[in-house]
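Example 9 (inverse folding). The structure is encoded as follows.
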């Protein structure tokens, strides 16, 4: 598998889980978001889960995230 360097990266640590947000380019130089969840279970095993969001999906993805955040903030009041 070929390694593709990230154009931008950030991470969020949350207890036994860490989320990595990496912007990379496809082979035809179009950006996409790769979200990786890295976690360690109670037995000490490392697990990774990946999700990709391509450029043409970003607007809808962003709207959905904003709706979820708005809903959660309303519920927390």
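The amino acid assigned to each position is listed next.
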């Amino acid at each position: 598998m070929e390694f593709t360097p990230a154009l931008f990266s950030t991470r969020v640590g949350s207890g036994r889980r860490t989320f990595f947000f990496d912007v990379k380019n496809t082979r035809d130089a179009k950006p996409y978001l790769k979200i990786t969840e890295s976690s360690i279970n109670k037995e000490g095993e490392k697990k990774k889960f990946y999700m990709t969001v391509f450029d043409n999906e970003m607007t809808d993805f962003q709207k959905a995230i904003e709706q979820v955040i708005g809903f959660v903030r309303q519920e927390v009041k």
